[in-house]
Amino acid sequence: MTQFALASALRHARVPRYTSYPPANRFTPAVDGALAHQWISEIPAGAALSLYIHVPFCRRLCWFCACRTQGTKGDAPIDRYLEHLGLEIAQLRARLGEGQKVERLHLGGGTPTILSPDRIGRLSEQLHKAFAIPERAEISVEIDPCDCDDARVEALRDLGMNRVSIGVQDFDPRVQAAIGREQSIAATKALVESVRKRGVRSVNFDLVYGLPHQSEATLLATLETVIGLGPDRLALYGYAHVPQMARRQRIIPEAALPGPEARLALAARAREVLIQAGYVPVGIDHFARPQDALARAAKTGHLRRNFQGYTTDNTEYLIGLGPSAISSLPQGIAQNIAATGLWQARVAAGGPATSRGHCYSATDRLVACVIERLMCQGEVDLAEVSARHDTSLDSLLRRARKILRDMPGIGRLEGATLIASDSATVRLICACFDPGFEFGTDAYSQAS
To answer: 428-431 long-range contacts, Cβ below 8 Å, gap at least 24?
Structure first.
């Protein structure tokens, strides 16, 4: 497939990001609180756990964001949230068996640093009282440089924070104005220096291409600044313009958005610059220093993908707390009710706050395995997958050959290994293996 033909295909291809299989818009109410309760009670003693805590609040609502967030100027809603989060933590502790350890903890949002230092301290106390959290645990926090200070960093370090994720998007003032997120280089640099000073071992930056008014020149200027700040990891996401789902995106001028070919060019140029700067490509949209754990996992085939994106986390038990938070367990996926008030009411009534999810079938496990291998490695050994899932290799090969016939140049077969031609084609191949996906829908983001 030529670059032009590929760009043409991607123009109309809106496909899932596959941070889960099936994607969240296919979850159903068939998974309710009773079923989620049962799944949690079946987690064995001594298991390693991952916890995700969703803090839904922001002082400002960025227009480009499609995450589950809500604005607040005052602290009363935050205090009510923390009160109910404490109840949910206690309820989870009561449902778990003995001996589990929290090996991973991630605070996401929203803006976790909207919590004041004393509120962070209160949350820390609740977590350490309820769970065994060893010193070696990875504790990561999403931080907004415009809503964080040294006191908050100190409080988070006392919680155990050893990895941070910093949203940058783009430093160009015109781009920032168009997406409703103004953030200075000085504030970002000050935050990096603050967390490094306090021993945080890993700093991740989130960048976005495909934003309004973004050009190669503005993106390269942002990359130059970011590289100079020395992050250990970078994520380079394609902007997902889905105003039918995220109403605030209607503020963004669509005429200022780069077209499909321009998006491809931006992604390719950024990739080239980051590789030249010494970063190793990881999956379809991440980069890491060669010595970073994410780069090592990609090299050894141990890279995983979950609701936070690419990870080295290999636990089977990811539990989400807070409104809209998602749990991933061996039996399936469970998501909390999204509206904060309804989540609070469900928790106050004794929980769980689960509102929807998905029970895995044998087919789901097979498809999920194929998609995760493709998303993490850019290729999948269909013979290995067929043996692991006791399914026909011939049927998998037939599907692979049909994909290659229908979209020439998208990839190739070497024996029983299907290999994507490049990172821009991976999600398209995944979508072709997904029996629940139909091309032509606007429910997803562009593949490029």
So the answer is: 428/9, 428/10, 428/13, 428/15, 429/374, 429/403, 430/15, 430/16, 430/18, 430/370, 430/371, 430/374, 430/375, 431/13, 431/15, 431/16
